[in-house]
């Protein structure tokens, strides 16, 4: 009977250990772009305000970015992009982007 209890404890320990080892892998499986990058579809572009909205491919949340004029010229609504950004004072500031599928049918890197 004591052997069965020890086996159960061993299995429980391995199961818990497995959760700790696998949890980071599962959590980062969709976040393989690295820090400060998002991938998604451009929802809106506002050249007057210098902003754009992106539907994040991983979370399906709308993210709003402050973006400079040269980057704004590269994107259109419905483009699929990867955007590199920095967070400054609760704002997402676009630093660079790659257009992977443009509504104009052109694919280029920014």
From TrEMBL:
What PROSITE patterns does its record include? PROKAR_LIPOPROTEIN
- The name this protein goes by in its record: DUF5666 domain-containing protein
Native organism: hydrothermal vent metagenome
Q: Lineage in the entry?
A: unclassified sequences, metagenomes, ecological metagenomes
